[in-house]
């Protein structure tokens, strides 16, 4: 029997029992798409039990070849009008079965994707992460990770926000509520329902805190193995939006909603032995392996920025003095650096501060593992820590545009050697599609600046 991630997850046997006694009547089967979103179907419990568990289910392969707005676009080798937009098969991962208590009698199962001949869909984000984690496991290690997502909440429905052109929206707080207990109390009905729903769904919830931008908050979760963390992250983002919508509110995980502070997804990562032995700390100090891992992450920042910052908007977040990084540097508990080292002993870990809340966690974690292993394999030396203000340090810059990040990713020998050509070409095309859409758009900024004055 598959080992449960914790006792709030369900075995398949238990889920089928709950369907048999009508305690569950709806099962969502979902995978994570290129943008990090859950895509799939809601199935009637009985159909899930009688047909899907024994025979499987499918979805159109365009789901890994569309843009944010679900437009069919050109340039993907695996999916096109010429290829007829056929199916991919969903492979249920029984370790992910959970109840979603904010919905009536509903459970969710997350899936991997295979082609009809059962070969893996290598471009699927979950497969990309699993491949890198297999490399970690081959060495007798495991990767532990935590993702910290910030969001901004508004006192409006998504529909009203849309109809207002996303202008003049009222955030749930009108001032900076960083660490403010009063600030979070004002939003507690929303935060509490998110925390408790996520706990019931198998996530280990730490708590919630206010952040700097108006209406900005963060719900924190304990670290877990990297695949569990990515699975939970995808479910959390979806559920948090659904709960907000139920309460007549809207939340956004855009990396940069306005000109104030953006929303981050700091990613914490460490390696352990398969039985939990420490690999990053020995005799009261960092190990050479830890330093090589961090050196590898730093050496590959440019190669993998596209996976840390996958949207046009992601790059607007990289602003000096905003707590989002702009330089490729590391420091000891230094929040101005791209990489911050924190903790000691069992808590010793690196924090990658580059990703925004719009990141796809599977892809970012895969990139970090690939970069870190590159550092270990090549025994890279870690430069001394940056002391003081990284923003004014003159260190090399994190790529500041999507075009730059796309070129660095596509021409990266490390990305191609670790992720494979099929993956690199697929995600370089995703960047080309976004860049083309952005370049074709005339923005508010241009109108305001030029309409009368130019
Ligand atoms: N908590 C923080 O360090 C703030 C992070 C900041 N909001 C960012 O976008 O990176």
From TrEMBL:
<feature type="domain" description="GS catalytic">
    <location>
        <begin position="125"/>
        <end position="454"/>
    </location>
</feature>
<keyword id="KW-0067">ATP-binding</keyword>
<feature type="domain" description="GS beta-grasp">
    <location>
        <begin position="22"/>
        <end position="118"/>
    </location>
</feature>
<dbReference type="InterPro" id="IPR008147">
    <property type="entry name" value="Gln_synt_N"/>
</dbReference>
<keyword id="KW-0547">Nucleotide-binding</keyword>
<comment type="similarity">
    <text>Belongs to the glutamine synthetase family.</text>
</comment>
<dbReference type="GO" id="GO:0016874">
    <property type="term" value="F:ligase activity"/>
</dbReference>
<dbReference type="InterPro" id="IPR014746">
    <property type="entry name" value="Gln_synth/guanido_kin_cat_dom"/>
</dbReference>
<protein>
    <submittedName>
        <fullName>Glutamine synthetase family protein</fullName>
        <ecNumber>6.3.1.-</ecNumber>
    </submittedName>
</protein>
<dbReference type="InterPro" id="IPR008146">
    <property type="entry name" value="Gln_synth_cat_dom"/>
</dbReference>
<keyword id="KW-0436">Ligase</keyword>
<dbReference type="InterPro" id="IPR036651">
    <property type="entry name" value="Gln_synt_N_sf"/>
</dbReference>
<dbReference type="Pfam" id="PF00120">
    <property type="entry name" value="Gln-synt_C"/>
</dbReference>
């Amino acid at each position: 029997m598959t080992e449960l991630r914790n006792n709030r997850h369900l075995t398949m046997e238990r889920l089928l029992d709950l369907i048999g006694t009508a305690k569950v009547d709806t099962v969502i089967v979902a995978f994570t798409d290129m943008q990090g979103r859950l895509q799939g179907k809601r199935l009637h419990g009985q159909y899930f039990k009688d047909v899907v568990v024994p025979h499987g289910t499918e979805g159109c392969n365009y789901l890994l070849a569309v843009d944010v707005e679900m437009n069919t676009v050109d340039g993907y080798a695996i999916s096109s009008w010429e290829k007829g937009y056929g199916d991919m098969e969903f492979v249920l991962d029984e370790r992910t079965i959970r109840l979603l208590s904010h919905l009536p009698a509903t459970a969710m199962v997350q899936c991997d994707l295979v082609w009809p001949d059962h070969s893996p869909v290598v471009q699927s984000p979950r497969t990309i992460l699993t491949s890198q984690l297999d490399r970690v496991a081959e060495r007798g290690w495991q990767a532990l990770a935590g993702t910290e997502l910030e969001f901004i909440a508004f006192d409006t429905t998504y529909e009203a926000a849309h109809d207002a052109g996303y202008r003049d929206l009222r955030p749930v707080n009108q001032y900076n509520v960083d660490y403010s207990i009063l600030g979070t109390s004002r939003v507690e009905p929303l935060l509490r329902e998110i925390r408790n729903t996520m706990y019931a769904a198998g996530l280990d919830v730490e708590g919630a805190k206010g952040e700097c931008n108006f209406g900005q908050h963060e719900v924190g979760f304990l670290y877990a193995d990297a695949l569990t963390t990515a699975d939970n992250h995808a479910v959390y983002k979806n559920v948090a939006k659904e709960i907000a919508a139920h309460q007549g509110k809207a939340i956004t995980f855009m990396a940069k909603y306005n000109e104030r502070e953006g929303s981050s997804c700091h990613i914490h990562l460490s390696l352990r032995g398969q039985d939990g032995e420490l690999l990053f700390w020995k005799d009261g100090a960092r190990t050479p392996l830890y330093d090589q891992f961090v050196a590898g992450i730093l050496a590959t920042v440019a190669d993998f920025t596209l996976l840390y910052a996958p949207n046009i908007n992601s790059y607007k977040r990289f602003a000096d003095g905003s707590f989002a990084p702009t330089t490729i540097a590391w420091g000891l508990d230094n929040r101005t650096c791209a990489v911050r080292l924190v903790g000691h002993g069992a808590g010793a870990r690196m924090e990658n501060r580059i990703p925004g809340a719009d990141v796809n966690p599977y892809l970012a974690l895969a990139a970090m593992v690939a970069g870190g292993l590159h550092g270990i394999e090549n025994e890279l030396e870690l430069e001394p820590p940056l002391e003081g203000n990284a923003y004014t340090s003159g260190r090399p810059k994190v790529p500041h545009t999507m075009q730059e990040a796309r070129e660095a990713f596509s021409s990266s020998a490390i990305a191609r050697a670790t992720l494979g050509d099929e993956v690199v070409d697929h995600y370089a095309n995703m960047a080309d599609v976004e860049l083309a859409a952005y370049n074709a758009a005339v923005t508010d900024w241009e109108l305001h600046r030029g309409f009368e004055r130019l």
